[in-house]
Specification:
The protein is mainly alpha-helical. The chain has helices at residues 10-13, 19-61, 83-88, 94-127, 135-142, 144-147, 150-160, 167-175, 190-215, 220-228, 233-244, 246-261, 265-271, 282-291, 296-329.
Length: 330
């Protein structure tokens, strides 16, 4: 007797899923999408409390006549609309003239500091790519200024720049015989160069570290092929190294510019509350306009103008560099 087996259709052979099983993939997908936002939530809250809320309060203060008489309850200060901004940009008045001079000093200081930091950092990173004895020690030594606390480093420089017992004058005047008398580094015109030296010493290791990391992505085969074709060191740097570091340098220059233009700790620790006129950076100038004259409304207006300037410069820089990158890719 033959037994006949009837095959079930595929749709009947497939077991029906339980009601909860069909929803499991969808729930896991939702959790996977929500996980990044949950991880970013603490950082967003800190950003809101530390940066956004004080920034909004500063913008509000810039529209009020906030002086020492309204410190306890600044919300009761009279509304001044754009009067504080008018005072800040009135370059025929003493306040506007001082702000403009401080702005120009900051621009010149930033250009020199960023340029020297990039040049020294790139040169050190490129030449430390070669294998030689002591390379690891030099790499570690070059990162010491970046690892030191800012206040400890700048205070040390302040002692070194002392006129009578500082190391700088001891070497330049006493040992090398440069100058008729020891120079004043923390007052007068030399204060600008003293501030520039400290800024470059403190900032170039970051450029060195960034460029050194970018050099790791350049294949050594390109240098070997260029050497076989007869290209020297300078041609290799010009045609291989610098074009390959283009994207790294774009970010590096922008970060150095923002850090240097907004630098407050270095001049404050080096000179104190009142910087010399030659080294009057805009960050310290706004601090003096706010906390020494007790005119927080004008100081807040200056801060908002500085913020707008940095936003415009950053936007134009990113637009130009992005357009240049697309043009080169085409």
């Amino acid at each position: 007797m033959t037994r006949t087996v009837v095959a079930q259709p595929p749709e009947q052979a497939v077991r029906k899923a339980a009601p909860g099983e069909a929803r499991t993939p969808r729930r896991s997908g939702r959790r996977r999408i929500a996980l990044p936002y949950l991880l970013l939530l603490p950082a967003l809250l800190l950003e809101l409390l530390v940066h956004l809320v004080p920034m909004l309060m500063g913008i509000t203060m810039s529209f009020r006549e906030l002086t020492q008489f309204y410190i306890r309850n600044w919300s009761e200060a009279p509304w001044s609309a754009f009067d504080n901004y008018g005072v800040a940009i009135d370059f025929d008045a003493p306040v506007g003239q001082a702000l403009l001079k401080s702005f120009l000093t900051t621009c010149m200081f930033t250009v020199l500091s960023v340029g020297l930091c990039w040049l020294l950092g790139t040169a050190a990173a490129v030449f430390l790519q070669e294998n030689f004895r002591g390379r690891g020690f030099l790499r570690t030594l070059f990162l010491v200024p970046y690892a030191l606390p800012v206040y400890a480093a700048v205070i040390t420089w302040a002692f070194m720049f002392q006129r009578d017992n500082g190391l700088i004058n001891h070497v330049l005047h006493d040992q090398l015989g440069i100058g008729d008398s020891p120079a004043f580094w923390l007052i007068g015109d030399n204060s600008f160069w003293a501030l520039l030296i400290v800024s470059v010493w403190k900032g170039w290791p970051f450029a060195f570290l960034t460029v050194m990391a970018g050099l790791q992505n350049i294949p050594r085969d390109m240098y070997e092929a260029a050497a076989l074709d007869g290209a020297g060191v300078w041609k290799q740097i010009r045609h291989i190294t610098l074009p390959s570091l283009r994207s790294v340098n774009q970010v590096l220059v922008l970060v150095l510019f923002l850090w240097t233009f907004n630098d407050f700790n270095t001049p404050f620790v080096l000179f104190g509350k009142a910087a010399p006129e030659a080294a009057d950076l805009i960050s310290l100038h706004i601090y003096q306009s706010s906390f020494q004259t007790w005119n927080f409304g004008t100081g807040s207006a200056m801060s908002v103008l500085l913020l707008l300037f940095l936003l415009v410069v950053t936007g134009v820089y990113l637009l130009l560099t992005t357009r240049g990158r697309k043009t080169s890719d085409v």
